[in-house]
Amino acid sequence: MILRQAVRLLRPMVRAVNWVPVAPAGTLALLAVWLIARDDLAGLEERIVAVRIAAVLLALSMAFVLDDTTAELSASTPSPLLLRRSVRVLLMLLPTAILWIGVLWVMVRAPLTEPSSLPIVALTLELGAVVMITMAMAAVLIRWGSSDLGGLPASAALLGLTLVSWLMPEDTRLWVYPGQANWTAAHVWWGVILVAGLVVFVWSSLEPATSQAATVLRKTAPQHPQERDRVDR
Amino acid sequence: MATPVAVAPDRRSRSRAGASTLSALARIEGRRLLLRPAVLIGAALSLLAMVKMSWTTAPVLNRDDTAVSGALLVLAAATLLATNAAALRSRRRATDELLDSMPTPARVRTLADLSSVVAVVPLAVLVAGGFWWWRVRGDPVTSPDLFELVTGPVLVLLGGFVGVALARWAPSPTVAPIAVVGLAILEFVVNFSTGGYESGGRVKWLIPLVGQQDSPRELLVRPTGWHLGYLVALVALLGCVGLLRHQTNRQTVTAAGVAVAMVVVTGGFQLRPLNAGQQPDELAARLTSAAQENCQRRGGGTYCAVPGYEPWIDAWASRVEPVLVRVPQRSGPEQLTVRQDISGVSWHFIGSSEPEAADFAMPTTSEVRPGLWWGRGSGEPAFQFGLALGVASLTVGLSPDGVVSPDRQGSCSSAGQGRGVVALWLAGQAGDDNPQYLRREVRRQVDGAASPEVSGFPAEIYFHWRGAQPVGVLHYGLREAAAAVQLLDQPQDEVAALVAQHWDILTDPATTTDQALTLLDLPAASGTTSTVQTQTTDERGPGTTGPDYFTPCP
């Protein structure tokens, strides 16, 4: 049932999703990694920094995926909010994944002078966490903010969070490099952020009216005559 | 009865009404801009970035000025996002058509958006002023560049104007965040590859901010005045670009033409190549000779500082004197010279992209060379210890530059030599923070040390060397450091008496660590742990040829 609804939502969602940011963000991401990859002086750390910048850019382009100018109209449709948002996110994940593969490919094909390789899995986990936290922020801002457009504040918050995480003391920073003592611990935290982001996204995407409306309806709905009689007696 | 006649307002009164509307709109937009969370958080993050970047370094005002501008880029980015959102408000709320029906034209609204950015400038000045107040109270050296000081707030203005121009020409909320990251990438790539170096040419000065990248300001030719003019011209140009989206008038076109001319002229002046006298090596040579003539006597040493850095002489002397008082009179250096140096290394590499072009300054066997950096707070002990260790090494006959022979660049190792223990103890006991620093470093590095059974070489201890800038590297054994820590745990006067009594033997290069430990009443196994073992060169055998830096110091 849900799957059938999701498939039916695909076509209208393709038209509704804001694809505009993908092209500039993807181009910038690829340009950034290409510039660093062709620099002979850039070592593994600089390359990882470039890949992380690309990850933030791709997350930025996804920040606007929940922006829905017709939210009030589509709220009355039978498909639940969580499903509509999930379809949007999954649709946008497709070009994001392709661009991410491109970013990694550009970086991997440029040989490194030092005997080390790019930690692809760990960096992909970081991308997942950054994307998920962005989705969660956008969902929270739309639900509790004053507008149905959460993309702009979510992207600003993402940039702010990135800067704050970079300014944190070195031993608590999550942007670590291979060989550092807290590499594994940091990536456990990235995993935690990914899951926490997912939970917040799902929680913020549950129909806001469901629980309140049910309570109100229970209280105000006309009672069945038999039941009313029972109460009177 | 007279019939009322509609009188069209004349040009002057129309213009007065427009100015008053503009002023009212700009005031409202400016107030709203100042209260936007992005701007307030951006200001806080800018301040945090300034403090974070300089928390462990002593105030050097001719570097701090650039750091302030760099940190204000965060506020500039926040202002870009905020002004963009403000300029797109009517589009977001679908009130563009409603506003078009109002007497105030769109051009005035854009002008008001541009004028509102001025409200953030006092905030930028406040943030920078707070940072400067903190830095100036910490016994600063050198003087800031006034143009650099103004650059930060102008960058904030530039950010705001970019936001408005983007809103007018690319009216989508998705553009501004991506533009921020794009500008950040531009800054990152240009500054990473050429910031603080002259090798990349002068084209880098066309980006908003060029950092110093840990290069001393004294060796860089920064066209700060022209760059400030260039940024102001860019601000004017972006303002005109925003206004040109609406019906153009002669004033806007003329202003845009003037702005373009200013951008070309100021940008062109920034790009002028360096002349012979501005080459980094030339500047370094000039500074070195200036430092040689700018000397002061303190206790048992002569201290020579690069002009502007004289306030540090007392800090150096307070770390050097405790070392010298423990050295027997007859054995101390005749005349210790602590001479500030740009770094031991020739600065060809700043001007060249080929690292091999760097040749080295003459190594020293008679002086200690503190660099152009000093620490503060938790960063100070590393500098204090580094300087004290340079002096201590000199007193026991080791060149602070790790010189192997007078005609050969060094790196030699004192691992396995008894005088290494003496030098490390002398440095460790000099000052309140040094014992704790040495203990911490030994504890930290023992765990990560490579086993000598595996590497074939004695485990070494590495220090932050910035307190004394060596040409080469003098290596110390981890075992000797651990023994020095044990000496620090004993009554210092007793240790000093033993050191003075056996000074000649202890500082003899032929005296091994084991022999020194016996003389210092430490058990022979002192300093050894499972990883801190040592092998002398003889034990390694004649067939073992290690890297050059493990050559025993002569």
Structural description of this entry:
The complex is a heterodimer of chains A (233) and B (554). Chain A is mainly α and 233 residues long. In chain A, 71% of the residues lie in helices and 0% in strands. Chain A is built from 10 helices and no strands. Chain B is mainly α and 554 residues long. A 4-stranded mixed sheet of chain B has the order 1-2-3-4. About 7% of the residues of chain B have low confidence. Chains A and B meet through helix 2, helix 3 and helix 7 of A and helix 2, helix 3 and helix 9 of B.
Task: Give keywords.
heterodimer; A: 233 residues; mainly alpha; 10 helices; elongated; B: 554 residues; four-stranded mixed sheet; 23 helices; 8 strands
Quickly describe the structure.
The complex is a heterodimer of chains A (233) and B (554). By secondary structure, chain A is mostly helical.
